[in-house]
Amino acid sequence: SPLQIPQQVNFNPGLNLQYNETVKLQFQGASGMVNLLDGFSYTRDIDTFTFGAYNVRPKLEFDEMQNVSKHRYEYFLTSQRLPGEEYSEINPFIYADGRTTPPSLQREAFENNFLSSGIRATGLSLVAIGIAINLIMATWVFINRKKRPVRVSQPLFLGFICFGSIMSLIAIILISFDESYGVSATYLGKMCNAALWFFFLGYLIVYSTLFSKLWRINKVLSLHRRVVKPIHVAAPATILITCAIIVLVVWVIVDPLKWDRQTIDDFTGETFGRCSSRYVTVYISVLTALCVIATFIAGIMAYKCKDISDEFAETRYIFTAILTQVQVWIIGIPIIILVNSMSVNATYIAKALLVFIFAVSVVLLVIGPKILSSLGIGLGENNRKRGKFGSKDKTSKDKAGDNAGGVHVSGFNPPSPASTISGVKSTVVDK
């Protein structure tokens, strides 16, 4: 083994002179010239060693005194490396079957269940498509933010919906790696934790934004002389997101996810890598409950706003998005649970599809119809709804007479004497 001379630390330099001179010496040792390398450990230079590979061969000998045959072993030098030279073969290496060629493996190389490059490319393609759709939608909203179809839909909230969707899509990128792509187990564990942050916070941002958007327009069309700013309807979203952040922070500090690769078949040597922590079920359950609450209150508010024009509330499209995603989750989650310890590729693609459908469906169903409407493609809706331009609302007639039509919302409806109800004026301020 390499010669190790312990390094002296924090002593009198005057007393260290002999030590310093000793480690600079070169001398002939039993295995050749000894030369110490400079550095922290003063390890012996590898070029001063003589290395040899030995072949242990059994030999059957007859012991005449005991009248029995005994197995003995002989050592044969097969190759060696002299100081400063390359390895050279001395004798052939003979294997247990008597041949000089290595025997074939008794079993195939064990399976590590790495994520295949093709499946990974599919997942990353879904991310690219989803982000592209969200960016296109967000850009269209920004460009047309002063036009009535977008202005009445509250572009600030539409932007937050796109932002939350993109956050969820980033989670797919973070689960698209394993050791086969050169990432260490330490960084894989960090990516596991980051993926949870992006997905759950993105989900809560989307649905809490939908709730706040609907709640705000409902206040506008229900209250008298009330200025409704985004901050007035931000409390539920703030509470849900804050609770999620607290749970995620506690999880990361107390019991963070770690990348764990375990042998699942001792005979074949097959391994399987996954993110795991001791109380993962508890934390996931709490975060899932927060997501269910956000989805539920968004659905309830959409129901309350069902009589509001789609120009303001998009309730039927929100209902469609919620129902679509509930069906997908009901089908997808059991599949993920079943294949989680069976197939890395199936688990990955199932998770990627679920996140993709969530992130894209809401944006397409909320913003998509507005783009179609701007292109002159109408999807049709009931004209007898609150806030519908030019509609004859029965409640309005009761309050303002037969000459009143619809509800005037400052900043939403164009000013018109026929669309204003005396004494009823609500304002939405995007500040």
Briefly characterize the structure:
The chain has ten helices and ten strands. The protein has helices spanning 17-22, 117-143, 148-151, 155-174, 185-220, 235-254, 280-304, 315-339, 344-374, 394-400; strands at residues 26-29, 32-35, 51-63, 68-81, 87-89, 227-228, 258-265, 270-276, 409-410, 426-428.
SSE order, one letter for each helix or strand:
HEEEEEHHHHEHEEHHHHEE
**Strands of the largest sheet, in order across it?**
3-4-5
Q: Detail the poorly predicted runs.
A: 1-11, 389-429
The fraction of residues in strands falls at 5-15%
Major β-sheet profile: 3 strands, antiparallel
Query: How many angstroms does the end-to-end distance come to?
Result: 74 Å
What is the overall pLDDT average? 78
Structural class per helix/strand content?
alpha/beta
Radius of gyration: 36 Å
What is the 3D form?
elongated
User: What proportion of the residues is helical, as a percent range?
Assistant: 40-55%
Count of alpha and pi helical runs: 10
Total number of beta strands: 10
